[in-house]
């Protein structure tokens, strides 16, 4: 099974990137996922279910420890042939 996860961490800071956002980016970039798209207002990752779910667990724990007060995420199953 393949998954796509879209997530944001808050609070936002338009002046500089918050520590929790940098931590979240580091987690997903180090996770060895098939696709990682990091942006200022949302992030998307894709990959096999096990590595994605492991990355989400670490992402939640570390970004909350780094000061995130809210983490919003959506998880979708990617059907075969869908991109």
Give a quick precis of the structure.
The protein has 83 residues and is of the alpha+beta class. The chain has helices spanning 19-30, 49-65, and strands spanning 2-10, 35-38, 43-48, 70-78.
**Helix proportion range:** 25-40%
Strands of the largest sheet, in order across it? 2-3-1-4
Radius of gyration: 12 Å
* Class from secondary-structure proportions: alpha+beta
- Shape verdict: elongated
Oligomer: single chain
Q: Give me the strand/helix succession.
A: EHEEHE
Largest sheet: 4 strands, antiparallel
Ends distance? 14 Å
- Return residue spans where pLDDT drops below 50 for at least 5 consecutive residues: none
Description of the molecule:
A hairpin with a 4-residue loop joins strand 2 and strand 3. The two termini are 14 Å apart. The protein has two helices and four strands. Helix content is 35%, strand content 34%. The model has no long low-confidence stretch (mean pLDDT 94).
């Amino acid at each position: 099974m393949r998954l796509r996860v879209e997530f944001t961490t808050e609070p936002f800071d338009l002046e500089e990137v918050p520590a929790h956002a940098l931590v979240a980016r580091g987690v997903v970039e180090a996770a060895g996922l098939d696709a990682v798209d990091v942006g200022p207002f949302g992030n998307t990752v894709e990959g096999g279910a096990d590595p994605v779910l492991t990355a989400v667990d670490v992402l939640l724990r570390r970004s909350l420890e780094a000061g995130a007060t809210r983490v919003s995420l959506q998880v979708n199953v990617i059907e075969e042939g869908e991109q």
